[in-house]
Amino acid sequence: SPGPWRSCRGGTGPRPSPAKPRSGVAQAEPMSVWFQVPRMLLLLWLLPLAWPGEGSQRSEPMFTAVTSHVLPPDYDSNPTQLNYGMAVTDVDADGDLEIVVAGYNGPNLVLKYDRARQRLVNLARDERSSPYYALRDRQGNAIGVTACDIDGDGREEIYFLNTNNAFSGLATYTDKLFKLRAGRWEDLLSDEVNRAVASRFAGRSVACVDRAGSGRYAIYIANYANNNLGPHVLLEMDVAASDPARGIVVLTDVAAEAGVNKYTGPGQPGGLSLQGGEGVNGPNFLFHNQGDGSFVDVAAAPVSLDDPYQHGRGVALADFNRDGKVDIVYGNWNGPHRLYLQMSTSGRVRFRDIATPKFSMPSPVRTVLAADFDNNQELEVFFNNIAYRGSSANRLFRIIRREHLDPVIEELNPGEAMEPEGRGTGGVVTDFDGDGLLDLILSHGESMAQPLSVFRGTQGAGNNWLRVIPRTRFGAFARGARVVLFTRRSGAHLRIIDGGSGYLCEMEPVAHFGLGQDEASSLEVTWPDGRVVTRAVSSTETNSVLEIPYPQGAEGQLPPTLLECGQGFSQHENGRCVDRDECAEFPFVCPREKPLCSNTYSGYRCHSNRRCSRGFEPSEDGTACVAQVAFFGGYPSAGSQLWAWRPPSSLLSLGLGLCLHFYAL
Ligand SMILES: [Ca+2]
Ligand SMILES: [Ca+2]
Ligand SMILES: [Ca+2]
Ligand SMILES: [Ca+2]
């Protein structure tokens, strides 16, 4: 149980002895020196058991390794080599998802699940006659990979970020962009028409974005510049010059036109994540799409996400507190990891770091994943660390949503996915075996050749789930689309169809919802161009995969269907489920001692009419006066917490008061 303990924000203001969390095992440690010898011996036995985190030991192991029977190390499908990023896409267009692996000192792999043999097998075999043969590209020294439909033929192309041993600056071997053409996968960047744009720079990350909402994706390449060689590249198809039906795809770099021709200098390599026209980049750019396919960087001001002194690695997007806004989690290389909740203050977007000391603990992190691995509605965050100057275990946290309060961050036991000696370089989630529980695949490399590992979740087998796959107008995966699932009892759950996240990776193009014992009532998909589709979800569709095609016909043509929106939401006349304003609907909904009602997404809140002196205002629950805060994020001024006035005789509030930070919203 998380108990009343809640984290401090890292980095701002005084903290009450953050090194000693008040949890069961840890309590014994500081006390032990006062006890007699037998107790000391006991402690010596306990300590190794308690490492690396007492929190991780109190839960059942989440993952069990299935590598030895699903993907046993061998020459064909799981060679012991240096691997990096991975992407999940349907390479053979049969409706099942494959895992594409960037091989660095060996071939790239395309792993497909063979249901009959219950094994992952490599489609890109070492046979020249295979249509997948070119994807192997042994010479590429690939580190990153991403997939999206760049030419609008309904199938995803695959982009490999190659290094050819060039750490930064000019590489001698170009990246590759593979398309299925006349029955074989071929590199478009080798075509004569594309020689000029073929990236010859050493990249550090790659992702897909539908910047204009056309259904034709651009590929964002965050180059690793050297002496101002190699700004970021945004490759997309020149529609007027191309004829995809005849296999002619002319690529053009639109980075300057789109305003993203940034430089990522040595020392600041970055992960990359893109969501329907908004992007986040490790040295921390946050690109806001101005609506015309061009972007402005808003990371430093006004949203305070720039984190200028850290070296960003993996990043993931999710709505951790289920307020309908996309939050950002990312890892910094041997620096504090961040969990930024998005909030808005008088209509302006802000981010606020709620990482606990344990969560933010610096580590040699690569990929960061956010997913519901046990289908219990709460998202987990997985940190994939690379064993570097010694072992470095992977870590797993559960972000537990709370009504009107910040989520609780609980450390879980990753089980066999801990891999303390793993040279983790990448990781993806997908449900390759179709049992409704997400599977985890980890890649390794850099300093030691290690095969891939495959893990299955061990928990939540009885929980409900729903998987939603939106498609573009061309029938390809709608990367960057936003899917909101309305449920009968647990409000609205939000997912972004991944266009690139983690570190050098791209997750499955599926909105995977764990539902616990709840059921969905309706769903809403928003495509990158802003088109919205709503649809009822029946009980009989629980535990299934729903395909959502792009809407046919003009907007507003179809009359809205009657939807059940579930608790906290009601159907607007435009057909969409919207938050109910309980305060307006039921003027006397709040009790007498807390008469002030304020509407929140999916609920409402009651406040006391407590008066506060100038510069202060009542806290969210009305029990304290807190400073009105002007800034969020990394600035010291953000830590304007004060030790709250506490209601008498409430131990729970005392526990919270130790470490809670209040913010004016
Ligand atoms: Ca497939
Ligand atoms: Ca295509
Ligand atoms: Ca979960
Ligand atoms: Ca599974």
Q: What's the short version?
A:
With 665 residues, the protein is mainly beta. The chain is 8% helix and 34% strand. This is Cartilage acidic protein 1.
Low-pLDDT residue spans: 1-55, 265-272, 274-282, 630-665
Task: Please state the CA-atom Rg, rounded to the nearest Å.
Answer: 25 Å
Percent of residues in helices: under 10%
User: Roughly how many Å apart are the termini?
Assistant: 29 Å
* Strand coverage percent: 25-35%
- The overall average pLDDT, rounded, is 82
Number of helices: 9
**Ligands bound to this protein structure:** calcium ion
The neighbouring-strand order within the major sheet is 1-28-27-26
Provide key terms for this protein:
9 helices; 41 strands; globular; binds calcium ion
What does this structure look like?
With 665 residues, the chain is mainly beta. It has nine helices and 41 strands. The strands form twelve sheets. Strands 1-28-27-26 form a four-stranded antiparallel beta sheet. A four-stranded antiparallel beta sheet has the order 2-3-4-5, with no helix packed on it. A four-stranded antiparallel beta sheet has the order 6-7-8-9. The protein is globular. The chain starts with 23 loop residues before the first helix and ends in an 8-residue tail after the last helix. One calcium ion is lined by residues 431, 433, 435, 437, 439.
Write the layout of secondary structure elements.
Elements: H1 24-31, H2 37-50, H3 54-57, E1 63-65, H4 67-70, E2 83-89, E3 98-103, E4 109-114, E5 119-122, H5 133-136, E6 142-148, E7 157-162, E8 176-181, E9 184-187, E10 203-209, E11 218-223, E12 233-237, E13 251-253, H6 255-258, E14 272-275, E15 278-281, E16 285-289, E17 295-297, E18 312-318, E19 327-332, E20 338-345, E21 348-353, H7 357-360, E22 365-371, E23 379-385, E24 395-402, E25 405-412, E26 424-430, E27 439-444, E28 453-457, E29 464-470, E30 482-487, E31 492-496, E32 511-516, E33 520-526, E34 532-536, E35 544-548, E36 569-571, E37 577-579, H8 582-585, E38 596-600, E39 603-607, E40 616-618, E41 625-627, H9 651-657
Parallel strand pairs: 29-35
Antiparallel strand pairs: 1-28, 2-3, 3-4, 4-5, 6-7, 7-8, 8-9, 10-11, 11-12, 12-13, 14-15, 15-16, 16-17, 18-19, 19-20, 20-21, 22-23, 23-24, 24-25, 26-27, 27-28, 29-32, 30-31, 30-33, 33-34, 36-37, 38-39, 40-41
The structure holds calcium ion (4 copies).
One calcium ion binds next to loops.
